[in-house]
Design brief:
Blueprint: H1 5-22, H2 33-43, E1 49-55, E2 64-71, E3 74-80, H3 92-100, E4 107-112, E5 118-124, E6 134-143
Pfam families: DUF6174
Keywords: Signal
InterPro entries: DUF6174
Length: 151
């Protein structure tokens, strides 16, 4: 397990603010440039990685900040950084696929970090429905040492 305790205090300060800002207004849809950016960022993910996920829009069942390890495309470890209910945890790829499959009526906002990896994702499946938004902030995406990539 990767020890991220040294970054925990900074994450608890910065990530919630970023998560809330990712839930903000504006619409981009999944068409064109946004969908291309999501696919490009997904292609840059290693097959085995760890990341910190912060989620906090509307009535989502997955809320809070979690350190997640993915090996061969499956979540193998989850460590809550804050207290939240136990739920099924997604891979980054699963969340990106959710954005790509959101449909034409959805508003999708997406951003990458300097390396081109996913940094934030906001999905509003229906602009006319309140409290259905999904907001995520990704950070600390790093390969998991000692894991082999499939194939």
């Amino acid at each position: 397990m990767i020890d991220l305790r040294g970054r925990r205090a900074a994450l608890l300060t910065v990530i919630p603010a970023l998560a809330l800002s990712a839930c903000g207004g504006g619409s981009s849809g999944t068409a064109g440039k946004s969908a291309d950016a999501i696919r490009a960022a997904g292609a840059k993910l290693p097959s085995d990685y760890s990341y910190v996920l912060t989620s906090g829009c509307a009535r989502q069942s997955l809320r809070g900040t979690h350190e997640i390890v993915v090996v061969q495309g499956r979540v193998t470890s989850v460590t809550p950084v804050d207290v939240s209910a136990a739920v099924d945890y997604p891979t980054v790829t699963a969340l990106l696929d959710s954005a790509l499959g959101a449909g034409a009526e959805a508003d999708v906002e997406f951003g990458t970090d300097a390396a081109g990896l996913p940094a934030r994702l906001s999905i509003d499946p229906d602009r006319n429905t309140s409290d259905d938004e999904q907001c995520y902030v990704f950070s600390g995406i790093t390969p998991v040492p000692g894991q082999r990539s499939p194939g």
